[in-house]
Predict the structure.
Amino acid sequence: MAVLNSFEITEFEVRNDELWMNGEINSKTLDQFNEVMEANPDITTLVEEVVPGSLDDETMIELAYEVRQRGLNTRLISNSAIDSGGVDLFLAGVERTMEDGAHIGVHSWSDGFTDAAEFPRDAPEHEANRKYIEDMLGDDEFYWFTIYAAPADDIHPMTNDEIVEYGLLTAPIE
């Protein structure tokens, strides 16, 4: 894991006013993102194509708050596949849109020994992730859904109805 955090494994590509993203989020991703944004200040939208998750959750949360602070939108195309931390990053968009066919997968986080669902609901271990979801969506219901949807070593592919129910999008599925 530490080795994967020492290389740039996230790929960014500028396409007009969109920044296309592929790969896992690691400790280098925030610096990569900021460098691209400084060189391309007209970017309005982050398009996540295939983002299977995060190797560094602290960096993912910092990156997500940066996306929101910059006022960027997030978008999924029909063949997008985002899981775990990739989903958390998607929530940072001011406007969040998705084409039909995109995959959004969620699961519980783990501290390496215990899944989030095993901690009592009022445990302090929930606070950082719970608060992040509340900051992005206005409430924490999606957080609680994710930790019970699947264990940390599995993925629950969300249905379109679940995506709408938990407010992941700001516009209807295209």
In short: The chain is about 30% helix and 20% strand. The first helix runs from residue 29 to 39.
